[in-house]
Every structure is written in C-alpha cells, then in structure tokens.
Amino acid sequence: MIGENIRTILTELPSGVSLVAVSKFHPVEALMEAYRAGQRLFGENRPQELFAKVPLMPPDTRWHFIGHLQTNKLKMVLPYVVMVQSVDSVHLLQSINSWCLSAGKVMDVLLELHLGAEQTKHGLTEAGIREILSDEWPGVRFRGLMGMATNTDDQDVVRADFRRISALFRALREDYPGLEAFDQLSIGMSGDWRLAVAEGSTIVRIGTSIFGEREY
Ligand SMILES: *Cc1c(COP(=O)(O)O)cnc(C)c1O
After folding, report:
1. Whose CA is nearest to atom 11 of ligand 1?
2. Tell me: the pLDDT tens digits for 11-52?
3. Nearest partner of 110 among 134, 135, 132, 77, judged by Cα
4. Ligand 1 atom closest to Cα of residue 191
5. How is the chain split into domains, by residue range?
6. Pocket test for ligand 1, best of 5, 13, 20, 22 (most atoms within 8 A of CB)
7. What pTM was estimated for this model as a whole?
8. Residue of the nearest CA to atom 4 in ligand 1?
9. 2-210: what fold?
10. What are the tens digits of pLDDT across the range 143-183?
C-alpha cells in the first residue's frame, strides 16, 4: 500500500521535484515499507521522534526537519538532518548558525514564510526574510523558502497563498544573486501538492497520501 502510494505520486511528480515522505506519528515499520519502495527522503516535525527513528533506519536514509524547532533541541536534530525546512525566527537561525560553526558544519535551511495559515503561528515576514538574507551566516546555506497554505478546501485561497510565496521566492532570487543555492521552494502537502507543483514548488511534503491518517 505505502509503496504503491509512493509510486503513484512519483509518476505524477515532474522530474526535479523532490518528494519528502512525512513520516511523523508513523512507526518505523511504515517508514521501512517506504524505504523498500525506494524512498530515501523523510520529514519529521518533532525532535524526540526524529532522534528515536534515525538509528532504526538504514544509514542512507535522509531526513528533513519540518516542524517548529526549539533551540534547546538542536543537538537532537542537527547532527542527523540534511535540511531544516522550518526556520521560523531569527533566534532559531542564530542558534543553528552558532551550532554549525562550532560543529564545523554548514546546514542547508529553508526560511519559513508565515502565509497566514491558522494552523501555525510560526514563520517569518517578508521583511524579516530580507533582513536575514542581507546578513552573513557562515554556518548555514540558504536553499529557499517553505510555506504552508491556509487550511481550507477553497482552492482559490490555497492558490493565492502559493502564488504569493512563489512570487517572493522569484523576487528574492533576483534581489540576492549572491545566494547561489537559493533554488528550493517547499510548498504543498497531501491535499494541495498538485496545485503547489503548478505554482513552482520544487519540494512537496506528503504524509497522509503515503502513510494514511495519523493517530495522535
Ligand atoms: C504533517 C506535515 C505535512 C504533511 O501533511 P499531510 O497533509 O499529511 O501530507 C507537511 N508539512 C508539514 C510542515 C507538516 O507538519
């Protein structure tokens, strides 16, 4: 089932768009089913859960952190992930930057734009993002933007959210040409990833459509 779900999504996903299998709340057996279907990239949103799952998965599994991250939890996350998608404050960015400098690492990050989605109060404003990008952060590499659309069935509202973040993404690429790796836009989840891809998403974060409903 899980393998079939992944194959179905991959046949529709344009090449060049990455699939993050969002495995939060699902047991490692479910992740292994995805792994056996060829999936290597997984997304988790809670430090403790990520930390517990990492040693149980094969070493070539790659992880993105996609949830709100408290700075006292960095050591449970940063050694294990290839990207933090959810940088939602300057304070968090400063902490990641310092941690990476002392670890001799550079972390790929996405800046999370607050799109007005009511399910999360977290995220940066456009002005906040521009201020960040005007500074020097030797411990991080800015890869792009992440955002969550308003939680609604109204496709027009979702499309408008996606257009807004996509337009900002393109504007930032023009305004900050020094950011050579700023090429990723992470929008789109189970309910809206086709729309996200149509609006320029390069990463989709899909949980329910792969693993089924989560039991909280
Ligand atoms: C849970 C989660 C997802 C996946 O949501 P689905 O609707 O299950 O696909 C995507 N992004 C973030 C940030 C999440 O927390």
Report:
1. 205
2. 999 999 999 999 999 999 999 999 999 999 999 999 999 999
3. 132
4. 7
5. 2-210
6. 22
7. 0.97
8. 207
9. TIM Barrel (3.20.20)
10. 999 999 998 999 999 999 999 999 999 999 999 999 999 99
